[in-house]
Amino acid sequence: MKKTKSARFYAFLSIGAAVFTIALKYSAYLLTGSVGLLSDAMESGVNLAAAIVAVCALTYAAKPPDQEHVYGHSKAEYFSSGVEGALILVAAVSIAIAAVERIINPQPLAQFGLGLLLSLLASAINGGLAVILLKAGKRLRSITLRADAHHLLTDVWTSFGVALGLLLVPLTGWLILDPIIAFLVAINIVWTGIKLIKESGSALLDASIPLADQRIISDILLNYDRQGIQFHCMRTRSAGAKRFVSFHILVPGEWTVQRGHDICEEIEKAIAHALPDTNVLTHLEPLEDPASWDDQELAKD
Questions:
Q1: Sequence-distant (≥ 6) Cβ neighbours of residue 182 within 8 angstroms
Q2: Do residues 141 and 15 share a domain?
Q3: 234 phi and psi, to 5 degrees?
Q4: Exposure check for the chain: N or C terminus, fewer CB within 10 A?
Q5: Tens digits of residue pLDDT in 156-201
Q6: What are 87-115's pLDDT values in tens digits?
Q7: Position 15 in a domain
Q8: Which of 159, 175, 204 is the last residue before a domain boundary?
Q9: 152 in a domain, yes or no?
Q10: What is the DSSP track for 49-65?
Q11: Radius of gyration of the chain from Cα atoms?
Q12: What is the spatial distance between Cα 2 and Cα 276, in angstroms, rounded to a whole number?
């Protein structure tokens, strides 16, 4: 429960940052009339919407298991990152439309110096917050925080692109540079949105846990394998910050039920200790029984 509250804290922090950066970027747009800065402000609007969705998702994911959701509600985080990806695509279309209109009818920029300063200040805030969210997302194993962080990093690159356009327009006199850069920003945003939606969809389809985590499990089992105990039918999946692992443990048939049970408990605890928030389910089978090997091809991560 403590970890979920921490994740919600970072989501609320993201909301506060989004509100502040929207104010900065929209002010910069009003000062300059730059469609590039307008596109930047619109993307920050997506940040705000995504942060609000993240808070809702993290709150729901924190609910304990119930009769209808015996494995908990942690998959709610994937809906958050999926919604964020969809919002990014909507923002990209809006930016592209505004950019095309300005390409057709170029407009001069005003007070670009002050507008540039406000934009860079907003970028610094987003960049700092993105680093914080990436670290928190890794520590808390939250796809919601990681998605928010990657989106903020995209926002930072967007702002730098827009700032470059603002600098080049007065130097070259090419008014069309501003909307062209805004259009390129829209394309970049589309790519980010697609990646987020793809990652969320993969997780909702019960993707296996990361290979690094699987290697940790393999190393633990290797110690028992050397003792003559064997394993197969390994299945793994992720659900938000939680992992689910199941496999069969094959021991000599002459063992007592108690001895086999003790080994299962020992292995389950070792994995749960090495990988916190992991639900481990084992199935005990006699090593010599041919039927124990009939299902070894059923599950391959």
A1: 35, 36, 38, 39, 95, 98, 99, 102, 162, 165
A2: yes
A3: -75, 125
A4: N
A5: 877 777 777 667 777 777 777 777 777 777 787 787 778 777 777 7
A6: 778 777 777 777 777 777 776 666 667 77
A7: yes
A8: 204
A9: yes
A10: HHHHHHHHHHHHHTSPP
A11: 25
A12: 13
